[in-house]
Every structure is written in structure tokens, then in C-alpha cells.
Input
Amino acid sequence: MPLTDLDVKSYKVLAACCLGNLASGFPVNSFGNVLLYVVSYLREKHGEEVRSSGVSFVPIMCTIILSGTMFTGGLLEILIGYKMSLIGVSIVFVASIMLNTLALSNFGAVIVIYCIIGYCEGVLLVTFLSTAMEWFPKKRGLAAGVSALGSGLSGFIFATAQSSFINPWNYTPDDAPYPGYPKEKYFSQPDLLRRVPLSFLIIAAVSGVLLAIAIALVSRPTEDEKSQLVGTKLHLMSPSISTQPEIPPLKMLSCLHFWVFFIIFGLGRSDFIFMNSLSKVFGESFINNDHFLATTGAITGIMNGGGRLIWGSLSDVIGIQPALMLQSSILTLLMFTFHATTAGGSVMYFIWVCTITFVSSANFSLLPAAASTYFGPNNGKLKIGLLYVSQGVGALLQGLLVMGWHVVLNWKGVINIFGICSLLAFAFSCILHFVLKSIKDRRSSVLAKFGQPYEE
Output
């Protein structure tokens, strides 16, 4: 069947959303790969008081800002319009990355810059996600997965390029300043450290070009196009569409399902946070090959991007709730056995890191799909943003746990914290699927006898 003009436009916008998330996704998705380079540079400038365990909160802080302020993207669009909000936030985003080159000489400035970057990334992410799902209303999970694919691949592309630029010599960390922690090492090679600030300028230029292309191609569907999209049969669509009633954003807060989803997604973010902020630092403690660890980080970018696409597609087939149970059960098993990679060596480490990243990436597809499917597609930015606050709350609590207990617990203890979070997410997923679904079905059956609709 030949593609219509509407089909072509839909695919074009979906590609633009993927490209936009690719350009804006690197700060959170590749920070774990460059953490040791940045910390080593900061130590050169500020002395030995800067340590990896203290700086690992930066991506957590980015996640908190990104998640907690994402809903403001909808408010910003109301104030200045769809395109202008995208253009304005993109300019601030690129400028912040460029300023980070200068900010690396001041630790406080790094924190401020990353807060701004986190906010901009959140607004851009929710805009591209909601736009993609508007163009594919019958396959929201897959549309969210394709859009989020760009954000996941950013870790692969930018991490590979940044590591190759900063450390083409494959230097290994050679500075072990703490006798009590012989495995905590940093880079001291001057030629490597000089390249750290310049790498952010290059990334800023590339991100700016990609965002400009994405903004030129992206647009929201008109009311006429929306009605056609519901009736048409795009190749990405299935014949069924959700009939879930529309729930206003603020009324979501009174829905029990919203808060259970909130807890599940908040807990489910934990493993992704560990992979992004601490997995490479953990690997450096027993693997003396920086290029291998950088390559592992790059490949996890592919797993991250591909996972978002596959989990989004899977949720359209088996449902969001079963997908959440499957995801959290696998993560629980993997996290509780992750410390065994110290005995299994680099091959086991590689397999576990890639698999955990692939499975934990499901949140980026399942969360926006859940917001749109269970609470209705209208006001998508606000609804996704409200549910995305769970990621910030989860990141904050897990960050405090790790930062507070890092000095007391060894690596096994820290990793087990994240394993417990996955186990709790699995428990709440079972409650959502078996308990709340049963209650809703019974209440719907009773109300149907009296001719009344079910309302949560």
C-alpha cells in the first residue's frame, strides 16, 4: 500500500523527534563514561578533596531537575508557543554546554551549569516524546520508544566520540592517592587532562546543528490531521486504540493508579542511575583497560536506545503492566548478582552492564505510554511531566542513600541498595496488575448493573 502525504509527514516528524532526543540526551546518558575524566580534571584544579563518590551526584542532580521540572514544558508552550519554546530552550541548552568548558575550573559553576542543562533536556525530552505519540495515537508505546531511541543512542555516539578524543592513547588511571582505597584511581596525564574542557565545545557544536535540523522538521498535528490519524492505517499502527477516558492533569493526582505508577517508575529509575553514574567507576576498580570500559559504555548506549524501542513495542503487544513486571523481575536478578562480575572478569561485567542497561531503558518508553494510555493523550506534556517527577524523587532518595552510605558500605552493599529498589518495583508492579486490576473490574461490574460508568 503506497504511503500517503500524511504517512510521510508522520514518519518525518517521528524521525525529527528521535534526532532531537539524540542531540539533547548526552548529559545524563554519557556522564558515567566521562565521570573519571571530569573528576581527574577537577582534582587537578581543586586538589584531592574532589572524589568520584562526591561528583557522582551530578547526573542524579540532572535527573532530579530534568524530572521535577519537565511538566513546565507544557506551560512554556502555552506562554510562547510550540516552536518558540523549542528554539529558546535549545539555545540555552547549547550555550550551557559551551559554558561548561569554562565552568570546569570552578566546581560550583559546574553544578549550576548542569542544573540548567538538566532543565533544558527535560523540556526537550517531554516535547519530542509527546509530539511523537500525537502523530501515532494507535501505537503510543512504539512511538515513545522510537523517539526515546535517540536519547539512548546519544550515550553510544557521544561517549565514543568524547572518550576517543580525550584519551586516544588508552591511558589507564595511574594516581591512587588514598592508601585505604587502593582501587580508587584517577588520571594524572597532562595531555589527557588538557582535552577534557575542549571536548564539551565540540559536543555543543554538534548538538546545536542536530537540534536545528530537528526543530525545522518537527511539528504538532492539526485537528484535521489528528482525526485522520485515528482512522488511518499507518504501517506502525495496530487496528486497536485505547478507549481510556480523558483525565485532566490535576485530577491525575487523585487517582490511585497514578501513585502506584509513580512509585514503580521512581524505584525503577535506580538501576539506570547506577549504570550511568557509577558502573564505569566500579569497573575501573578491577579492570585495567580504559578503552574496554569506554567501549562497553558506548555499546550500552546502543542497548539503551534499542531497549527503549523494543520495550515500547512489547508494551503495545502484552500491555504496560505485564511489561513492568517482566522488567523489574529481570533487573532484581541482575542487580543482586552484579557484584559477582569482580570474580567473573571483564566478559561477565560486559554482559551484565549491557543487559541491565537494556532492561532498565524500558522506563523511557513505558512511562510516557502509561501517562498517555491510562490518563488520555490530551495535555500530554503536563501528564508525562507529572508522572516523570517520580524519576526525580527516586533519583534524590537513591542518591542520598548511596552518598550517605558509600563510606560505610563496600561496592557490594551499594549495589544491593539498587537491587532492593528493583525488588520493591516488582512488588508494586504485581500489586498494580493483580490487585488494582481486580478491584477495578469488580467495581466496574457493580456499577454497570446500575448503568453508571466507572471512575477511579
